[in-house]
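hi! just following up on the protien thing from before. the input was this:
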Amino acid sequence: MRFPNINAIVYFEAVARHSSVNRAAAELLVSRSAVSQQIKTLEQRMGVALFRRIRRRLVLTEEGERLFKAADQALALLRETHNTISLARDYRSLTIRVSSSFGVRWLSPQLADFVAAHPHLDLRIDATSELSDFEKENIDVDIRYTVDMPEGLHCQALVTDYVLPLCAPKLAARAKRAGKDGAAHVLARARLIHTVKADIKWHEWLDLHGMDAAQASHGLYFDRSSMSLKAAEDELGVVLETATLAMNELRAGKLLPLAPQLGALAIESYYLVCPVKHLSNRYVKAFIAWLEEKVKTHEVEKKRLMKSLGVKVKPFCRGHRRHARAAPARR
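and the predicted 3d structure came back as:
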């Protein structure tokens, strides 16, 4: 016996659900005669009656009930699968892992125009200190802080950070009044605020500027730049941080360079990392292109801000020690 065609099953299911040929025809946008013909053909092919008429109403026979149950389940599964495939076609996802401070302070405020340009993209941001294992995790790109060049992965520098001591306006004014040695005067008395995952540490900065590094191990320690910057804004001490993460506070005057005349140390800090094969994904390519434009604008604004604050920038070189770390830091 030949299996009934799918149209016959669809028409039968609609008639059984509505108990009416007319209502089924209206739902299916076909004529009443077309529905009746499909039901008749189906009954002939199966060799049983599927409906009986009781007072102008179609009622399923025992065989009709069995077929309706099977048809209802099968068509529900087909509809669900169709919807899933359609959604997968219209919507795509992009998963980005990023260090939490950079994600909150820099990336998130920039995302509005990227989201607007890709309305059918499900964007997933994973702000965590964990580095991505691209072989085991569903991560498209990772924005890492101070990374050693990973083997077998695409890696491109994004941001050049400017690292310098920052403090609340009162401490900056005190250093300015103290004159040439104002920074050393303030640092000898102020509490140092440490971001434990920062690439440049207080003892390195103090050594580089010929200051006493004995106090470098003391002070307040935070594992997130956001917390360190807030502590400095609250006048709890002086923080050694980056202009990239402190842009809002510097613009608003809530934080100031402790000693603009000592300048800032420039160091490549944030990197985009992903498997080379991910670069063929059109959404990854779109995100990278968007990110590069945002970073370019950010770098111009940052240089302008440093100039307005009287801060000159000089490169920081740690030599082989930077590449000897076993694992990159995240913050």
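The first strand starts at residue 51 and ends at 54.
The chain has a mean pLDDT of 87.
cheers
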